[in-house]
Amino acid sequence: MEFAEVVRRRRMTRAYTSAPVEAAVLERALDHATRAPSAGFSQGWAFVVLDTPETVRGFWEAQADTSAPDRWLAGMMSAPVVVVPCSRRDAYLDRYAEPDKHRAGLGEHDAGRWAMPYWHLDTAMAALLLLQSVTDAGLGACFFGLVPGRVDAVKDALGLVDTDDAEAPHPIGAITIGHPAPRSTGAQGSASRRRRTPWREVAHRGRWGAGWLGQDA
């Protein structure tokens, strides 16, 4: 598939068939995800891959009340694979404590010095590459956030527990992967009800408030 077609076709899939995901597709998507850019080439990401009925069910039981799933949850729970992208802050603090990064002034294991938590941002870019790779393979995927009050339960279910030696990776969300079911099966997303904003309405050339051709918007 041409790259432009991958970009156009990528959408959030909210219901899946029972067909399994080929290991080669999943491995290729994970390989592509590690090609994302990262500050200082810190590569502070990790991916917890759930690809058995038991591990997928354990994730959902930690993430949500599965006793009476609504249409959205039922559709999402039908995915045979869930990938949980995690950021590793310590990888960045350690990297920027190295001699070649001293001039950045970020290497004292003080995350408050960072203007942006790039460990989350870089992991999100890796997650997007994973979504695009799944689209390129003809499958569907959906990135979604964890329920705020259940993050600790999810981390515990996935073994993401801090130790005396290191901080555990932090899940930034989760990605369901599988063969898309008919669109009428799952819940409809906001994109079905909201207008996609044309790029010319959000691109500001030269300064904020200027249109693409430079004039005031």
Description:
The protein is built from 7 helices and 5 strands. By secondary structure, the chain is an alpha+beta fold. Strands 1, 2, 3, 4 and 5 form a 5-stranded antiparallel β-sheet that branches. It is globular and about 55 Å long.
Global shape: globular
Major sheet description: 5 strands, antiparallel
Radius of gyration: 20 Å
Helix/strand order:
HHEHHEHHEHEE
Uncertain regions spanning at least 5 consecutive residues: none
Average residue pLDDT: 93
Query: End-to-end distance, in Å?
Result: 37 Å
Counting DSSP H or I runs of 4 or more residues, the number of helices is 7
The fraction of residues assigned to DSSP E strands is 5-15%
Helix content: 25-40%
Derived from helix and strand composition plus strand pairing, the structural class reads: alpha+beta
Oligomer type? single chain
How would you sum up this structure in a few lines?
With 217 residues, the protein is α+β, with helices and mostly antiparallel strands.
Q: What distinguishing features does this structure have?
A:
globular; 7 helices; alpha+beta; 12% strand; 217 residues; five-stranded antiparallel β-sheet
How are the elements arranged and paired?
Layout: H1 3-9, H2 23-33, E1 45-50, H3 53-63, H4 71-77, E2 81-87, H5 89-95, H6 118-136, E3 140-144, H7 151-157, E4 170-171, E5 174-178
Antiparallel strand pairs: 1-2, 2-4, 2-5, 3-5
